[in-house]
Amino acid sequence: MSLVDSYVNPYTSLTVAKFGGTSVADFTAMSRSAAIILHAPQTRLVLISACSGVTNILVELANGVTDTQQRHALLTRLTDIHQSVLSQLKQPQQADEAITLLLKNVAELAKKAAIEKSVALTDQLVSHGELLSTHLFAQILRELGIKAIRFDIRDVMRTDGQFGKAIPQPSIIRQLSEQHLLPQLKKHVVVSQGFIGSDEQGNTTTLGRGGSDYSAALMAEAIGASTLEIWTDVPGMYTTDPRIATKAKPIKEISFSEASEMANFGAKILHPSTLVPAIRQQIPVFIGSSKAPEQGGTWIRETVSDAPLFRALALRCNQTMVTLTSLNMFHAYGFLAEVFRILAEHKISVDLITTSEVSVSLTLDQTDTSGGAPTLPAQALAELSELCRVEVEQDLCLVALIGNQMSSTKGSAKTVFSTLEYYNLRMICYGASPHNLCFLVKAQDAKSAIKDLHCAIFE
Ligand code: ADP
Ligand code: ASP
Ligand code: MG
């Protein structure tokens, strides 16, 4: 029996719960989330995000705000968000002291970033959102009578040193969790940070925007949890983003494969990597609304009772498409190998690919915290330009239809193409996966394409 098993056995159904930014936005939201934990004694580890809006302010500061007045205005907004919660605590002293210190750090780091920004400094700065919110949430739990402690996840969440989108190291995370976290879980409800980690040298890293979902799944894996709960602002996963299609319907149950496609193809409700640890350990994932837990939510599991042809639609914006054209590609070999050698040398990760006789189009993966469209580094562009004609296009969004056995079911593409006959569809990818059909559209057409498809397929 491993250490994990011996610690975890007393809690046969240990749960990790994650609360996103809107679920810890202010005192009221935090209190609602705390009530969920109060009624779930099996929840021992709670990972939370920064209070809503805080990471955006920190990213802005990390990008270097040189105007002192503007910088101070942003710092004041950060202080106000946290002060408003502090002012409603019964015993704010401990959290107040810690928060004052952290906000002082933020001011110093923001000043540094205004002089010279760097990816390491950005991670150090943006990590403060989660470092701050966890002080407040732990205190709110204690004031409800829960034996809660705040834990610094950087003691266990080991990643590589790729700032902005660090890669977690699950076996080290598990070892460190056995040493430092499991003994605490036996005695307390542990409140800790999503999104952030630490490399071997102790530098603070982050897992990419929206990364708290992924943190929670990694921790569920590390401590051998039997359930992962993701508490957010909607009661589960819907047939598409309900902000885009108001008639979107909640999904009660969805398979790991379908939900992974949804996350990968941009459904913001889950960070794209969230389900990787859950699938590795077969941990069922529940998504629910912290505002309305009584409404239930979505269960994501290995096997589910139905496998509809069309399950849902996802949208991912800020796409960069690169088209490489060369007559040398015609009936030749080695051209694509050379293209991918250059891309690999510059550590450029490719997402979608389509080819013709003389050209290949590809989209670039998002690789940092900025959230904007990825760019082709100048050196890579120069090397590719020596080989072929290179065109880079932005202002594109990726629409994905997720379902089951789509590539082997006659007529499934017809519904899509007949509904969208007046749209300019680019880079159509169909058939490689039985679970999806996707294509690019101009950014300004994306939401109406989703609405039209949703209406034709799900309403
Ligand atoms: P959190 O801060 O809790 O992590 P996010 O904003 O990251 O929350 O994710 C929740 C949001 O995801 C919802 O408010 C919704 O607009 C969006 N979303 C995108 N696709 C879907 C979908 N298929 N189902 C439900 N919500 C979705
Ligand atoms: N606070 C981080 C963000 O806003 C991580 C998260 O919320 O998941 O991206
Ligand atoms: Mg999120």
From TrEMBL:
Binding residues annotated for substrate, in chain numbering: 55, 130
Keywords: Amino-acid biosynthesis, ATP-binding, Kinase, Nucleotide-binding, Transferase
UniProt record, GO biological process: homoserine biosynthetic process; lysine biosynthetic process via diaminopimelate; threonine biosynthetic process
UniProt-annotated binding residues for ATP: 18-21, 232-233, 238, 243
Molecular function (Gene Ontology), one example: ATP binding
Origin: domain of life: Bacteria
A GO cellular component entry from the record: cytosol
Catalytic activity: L-aspartate + ATP = 4-phospho-L-aspartate + ADP
Alphabetical list of Pfam families matching this protein: AA_kinase, ACT_9
InterPro entries per UniProt: AceGlu_kinase-like_sf (IPR036393), ACT-like_dom_sf (IPR045865), ACT_Aspartokinase (IPR054352), ACT_dom (IPR002912), Asp/Glu/Uridylate_kinase (IPR001048), Asp_kin_monofn (IPR005260), Asp_kinase (IPR001341), AsparK_Bifunc_asparK/hSer_DH (IPR042199)
Pathway: Amino-acid biosynthesis; L-lysine biosynthesis via DAP pathway; (S)-tetrahydrodipicolinate from L-aspartate: step 1/4; Amino-acid biosynthesis; L-threonine biosynthesis; L-threonine from L-aspartate: step 1/5; Amino-acid biosynthesis; L-methionine biosynthesis via de novo pathway; L-homoserine from L-aspartate: step 1/3
The keyword Glycosyltransferase is assigned to this record: no
Keyword ATP-binding included in the entry's annotation: yes
Cited SUPFAM superfamilies: ACT-like, Carbamate kinase-like
Protein's recorded name: Aspartokinase
Organism for this UniProt entry: Photobacterium profundum (strain SS9)
Lineage: Bacteria, Pseudomonadati, Pseudomonadota, Gammaproteobacteria, Vibrionales
Gene label: STY4416
